[in-house]
Amino acid sequence: MKKIYFLSSLLLCAASMSAQTMIVLDKSGEQHRFGVNRIEQITFEEIEDEPDPDLIDYTAVTVSPYSGGNVGMTFTDAEGKNIINLDMWGTTEATYLEAGTYTVNAMNNQWTIDPSYSYFMPEAGQTPDYIGAGQVTVTDNEGVYTIDIAVRTASGLDINGRFTGELPSYTSHPKAMEIVLTSATKKIINDPQPGEHYIKLNDAPWDYEMTLDFFADESSTNLPAGTYTIDRSDAHPAGTLYYQKSSIDIYTGPSSDRGNHRFSDGTVTVTVNGNIHTIEMNVTLDNGREAHITYSGEITIETE
Length: 304
Known about the structure:
Oligomer: single chain
Order of helices and strands: EHEEEEEEEEEEEEEEEEEEEEEEE
Low-confidence stretches: 1-17
Structural class: mainly beta
Strand content: over 45%
């Protein structure tokens, strides 16, 4: 607490000449009167605002992006309680949660919250109390969101809450995708070029499937260690990854991430320790997403 003191010498001097009254007007407009001759000193105190006891502090959020600017968001507090699910609609071309005010409206227009899929539960497993009215205000500070919730449920319960933090997805500043692959095979291809190594990789649940077309020294029979850069030419210099035949298929996550993506930029580092190849990629996908992709293990050789 910060205190600033002002001695009221002028007031005391004035009080010696005639009786005077100091009038203080508070924020509510109410007046408070004090006899100046009774004041020894005036103290100003800077006091931090007390948190609103009725404001729910939401600390966790799950995000389910759909198409057309629609996203489902579920918020919980630190105890996993006070669950609120919001079905929000931004602009139709939105690829992340846009800043603005969203109003409860069943029309599914832009900047609305659909009450048919939006509800509150004090605890998991209880009967949902659907949202009937209100609004949600979203502000975005370079990917750190403040989401203020002020809604009323169908039963007449007022819900006021706030979430501040980064979103796990559907954000204006997405973090690099972290992808770990667990299987790799060098494939047999038609008319391979000298030094060409065509590798297919995937993870265990097949959420990701990737093809990498490496070009190394012409004398190499196995993928050698080195740093490889994305190359779009047909010259195939050693130390490159051929753009046209290298890509990743993504079958999980938001719709904006799914599909087949080539690597528009980045580097691939390969290290070799005995039979173990470690492949580390820091790349930009053709949809603008950054990705950190790793594999460590043997590269099996496909046989006819």
